[in-house]
UniProtKB/TrEMBL annotation:
It comes from the Eukaryota. CDD domains: cpn10. GO terms for molecular function: ATP binding; protein folding chaperone; transition metal ion binding. The keyword Nucleotide-binding does not apply. Belongs to the GroES chaperonin family. This is 20 kDa chaperonin, chloroplastic.
Length: 216
């Protein structure tokens, strides 16, 4: 039996097609269908959040991929596998509902990286993105004044943990990135997507074009 496939328009869900349960025909070209993870129901301190205050999830499971796209004379397949746990750009994609479960239809380039464990430090960045461990903010000013968490200046320096395979050129070939794991870099202050590791360490994933300088 086919399943109803719904697309949200403002505050309503509108039926846009009827699909087979395998759902591999939902997405085309370089699109990816991701089943959304659950929103956080509690704060770090254990306070229960109402549904309106729960943070929008940025991760989920790939349940369908398109057939890829053609660049020049080369057919380029989607690099993601069904079942992969991925993280995506916060405001990307089109939200849909399939079998009463929320999903997102995304372009492959909207996927930030693949989570190989439950810890963001093990994320595998995609395309032209890099995963950076953020340097710790200074606890004191030059004059010795102790800073609170809210007054600490946001650092824009960190150590590259992992890099993506590089962007595709006009012939569909991967171009290696200009930075490598272990490099200390300075990056654009308001770029990228921020994450916190299992041990509380801050990480950021951004495009290599947002790296302004390699310091070491």
């Amino acid at each position: 039996m086919a399943n109803s496939f719904l697309k949200r328009s403002k505050q309503t869900w509108t039926k846009i097609s009827t699909l087979h349960p395998c759902c591999h025909t939902i997405v085309e070209r370089d699109r990816v269908l991701v089943k959304l993870g659950a929103a956080e129901e509690k704060t770090v301190g254990g306070i229960l959040l109402p549904s309106t205050a729960q943070s929008k999830p940025q991760g989920g499971e790939v349940v369908a991929v398109g057939e890829g796209r053609t660049i020049g004379d080369k057919k380029v397949e989607v690099s993601l596998q069904i079942g992969a746990e991925v993280v995506y750009s916060k405001y990307a994609g089109t939200e849909v509902q399939f079998n009463d479960t929320k999903h997102l239809i995304l372009k492959e380039d909207d996927i930030i990286g693949v989570l190989e464990t439950d810890d963001v430090k093990d994320m595998k960045p995609l395309n032209d993105r890099v995963l950076i461990k953020v340097a710790e903010a200074e606890d004191k000013t030059a004059g010795g004044l102790i800073l609170t968490e809210t007054t600490k200046e946001k650092p824009s320096i960190g150590t590259v943990v992992a890099v993506g395979p590089g962007p595709l050129d006009d012939e569909g070939k991967r171009q290696p990135l200009s930075v490598s794991a272990g490099s200390t870099v300075m990056y654009s202050k308001y770029a990228g997507s921020e994450f916190k590791g299992a041990d509380g360490t801050n990480y950021i994933v951004l495009r290599v074009s947002d790296v302004m300088a390699v310091l070491s």
